[in-house]
Predict the 3D structure of the following.
Amino acid sequence: MSARPVSSFSKTYGHLWFVLPGFAFFLAVMIFPLLFATGLSMTNWSGLGNDVSFIGLANYVEILTHWPFYRAAMHNAFIFLAILVFQHTVGLYLAVLLNEKPRFMQFYRTVLFLPVIMSLVATGFVWTLMLSPNIGLINPMLEKIGLGFLAQQWLSNPTWALIMIIMVTAWNSMGWAIIIYLAGLQNVPEELRQAAEMDGANSRQVFWRVVFPQLSPAFTALTVLTFIGTFRTFDVVYVLTGPLGAPNFATDVLGTLIYRTAFGGSSFSSADIRFAFGVAMALLTMVIMAVICWGLIRILRKREIES
Amino acid sequence: MSEITQNLPQDTSRGPKRRQSDLSVLAGRSVRTAILVIATLWVLVPLFFMVIASFKSVADFFINPFGLPDEWLWSNYTRAWDEANLRLTLPNTIIVTFCAVLGSSLLSAMVAYGLSRKEKKYALPLYTLFVSGLLVPVHAIILPLFIVLKAIGLFGTLLALIVPYIAMGLPLGVLVLTPLAASLPKELMQAARMDGASEWQVFRRIVLPLLKPGLLSVAILNGVWMWNEFFIPLILAFKPEVQTMPVGIVSFIGSYSTEWGLVFASVLVSTLPVVVAYLLMTRQFQSGLTAGAVKG
């Protein structure tokens, strides 16, 4: 077979044939719905019927004074901060312990990462079994060891419910912190550590002055990952406290609020569903998250270079 | 005697300040081990109780909260198969995950090859466009997607999940594979072209095999979330015939809220395949997931 003459057009753009099928999927599922969503968010469509009219940015203006939106965003922010602190303290410490190559290190590592590959729905049910007022195991356990006074209605007390959501999220995501920090720790050159020890630094000084600065790429990655994960949280809340963010919206997050507004929660009548308003909230959340994410990455990368 | 030999290397390497007695070293080590054990128990104890719970009768949950069940009810599993619709949702989950992983891996490898020549003007903008898909939350696009799928008649079939999953798997795939494809030796492909191979043959015979390690990472990354995904099928799969397991279980609990044994049996069935795959390929899972997450 002789080589075909190759036109200059196909030489420049020939490779685009390989991009085309993927791009078609991407266009149909991501780009087009996103544009469609932007258009929809400027209408008053409820999701049912043909009653649609263009109302411009009115939905977005309304969100600014829609206090459930702020309440939900506050809960997301609270979960984010708590998980952030948890990952950079407990997660980091466990990674440091594992980096000292204790006996059974492989076992610890495998087990501690296990929840990451489990679905959030499964995670939610595992903890339902521990915390539920009917079948929960934590309360009977506390009673058995004489700490019955600590027993709580874990998921129906407004304060405890949010703390439990945080605890379950921490359970599910701790593996990320351990694996990411462990990879970072293994990249710290041994000579650097030894040199510092030679100079008489104690182990605490070696860690904070020498090792920790080397971990800043891991710090950045984990912070951004935690931000995205916690602001998108939905499954755990849905399973543990339901689409209404019970009790009394104390665990309502942006995910459940948007879901409820656009599709209706169990106890909402169809009259309360406002599809277009839900879409507007989803889009506004996306834009704000993208901006914060971008800012976070810029600040943290700058810090990486300085240190 | 043993004291001397143990302390000697410490004294020379860490300086005189750090002379610790064996006792405090031992205490420090025990505390560290204790912390690791506590963390491990925190993960394992709830999982252990869930396995036990999946064999319990409803009465057992109340009479005997943390003991072993009076009678190990394997029937929870057979009943879950029918009543919790696992016979529909388990095959669905396998089919959807398999097709979507295959589709998104192949398509992202093609895109990666197409964009791997950085000198082309279109390469960088298209790469950025694909990768920025990572920022788009499902929340924002699920609602219009629902309308589109309904309009083109895919709603109510498994394709209503497969098609979106393929597209949503692309950003990560392109992100991981494009740098790999760009780093492949150009001479190899040039030589094949000289021998009269078409571009497709070059891709199929040379590029695809060389991308294998990257493709495995992409398959794991996408496979895990597709298998576990809850929100998308919650909106796009409204009946058991097209649902995947996580949604199937949640809608089952909605209708039979006291059949806890069946719920935990279903949760276990839905989790076990991923856990087995993870235990068989622990290293690939950890490195693959981390690489994707860190880059993402």
User: Anything to note?
Assistant: Chain B has a mean pLDDT of 85.
